[in-house]
Amino acid sequence: MQGQDRMVPVYASGTQVLEKIHEKWKSTKQRYPAMYSSVVGGIILDPSMMVIPIDDHMVHRGHGVFDTATISDGYLYELDSHLDRLLVSACKAKIDPPFRRETLREILIQMTAASRCKNGSIKYWLSAGPGDFQLSPKGCTGSAFYAIVADAAGAATSRNKDGVKAITTTVPMKHPFFAGIKSVNYLPNALAMAEAEERGAFASVWVDEGGYVAEGPTMNVAFVTAGGALVLPAFDNILSGCTAKRLLALAPKLVEAGLLKSVHDARISADEAKQCAEMMFIGSGLPLLPVIEWDGQPVGDGRVGRISVALSDLLRDDMNSGPERIPVPYSGSMKNDHH
Fold first, then answer.
1. Strand 164-168 relative to strand 203-205: parallel, antiparallel, unpaired?
2. Which of 97, 123, 151 represents a domain boundary (last residue)?
3. Which of 182, 261, 274, 335 is catalytic?
4. Is residue 182 among the annotated active site residues?
5. What is this structure's pTM?
6. Each residue of 314-328: pLDDT tens digit?
7. For residues 310 and 285, what is the distance between their CA atoms, to the nearest angstrom?
């Protein structure tokens, strides 16, 4: 049998394991400048040590929730709304956070400061915690909080300019109860994204059993009708998108300017949506991406529409100077000292 006489290395000390992990990171561009772990009790700057216990209930049972926030020019954007959603998800998932909300928030700000990262994102998880490999969380030693900073992987400027393609996915939707929890169970989302990529699209769209548009795998969708209404699918059976809700708050400015007739969230059928003049994906990492083709058919005239551009500008302006920003105190952050 192939590989039968190959001996598997046995590492008896943590020093040996650490050496192997350091070898790996030497040849890898470091995109994660800081991590926080409540298991360790502090901020970690060495990527070799950015680990979580394998017996964490989040790892082997998917019993964890997460959220994210954008770092834009040294500010954390929409951190509070995303943190609030994390805590709602944690409550539904029966996870009691190890710290109060104020402490979680301060940890995330301090971690971002320690990372020195000015543009990118932070991702953070609340888990039922480590303990054993049983299905019940009773054996967990206590809930855990993990967070990491990710440098920006690259701008989506060209996609924003040219627009992207979308498909309707064949992957079944999550039940509304689970769709409303931002849990680590993203297998349906990953399969929906993989299906889109296999079919030459940027991302996919879920349509429910009643024929109504739901959401994308990591983003909400929005439409501009031929009559000039901005419509976002209602959040009844899908995840409540923080950026989508922010867009609903900002878009009335375009009504005042005469570019839109109205702004609202409502149930919209796929048949109605495919007759719309414009379509877009909305998410914290985008924040808005025009869709010019859906299931092989052009959206509107098949070009990026002026409303999509105007809405994108509103979100960008809000990220750059709006009230949802928190300045990161880099000057007061911890130094990477070696004692």
1. parallel
2. 151
3. 182
4. yes
5. 0.91
6. 999 999 999 999 999
7. 18
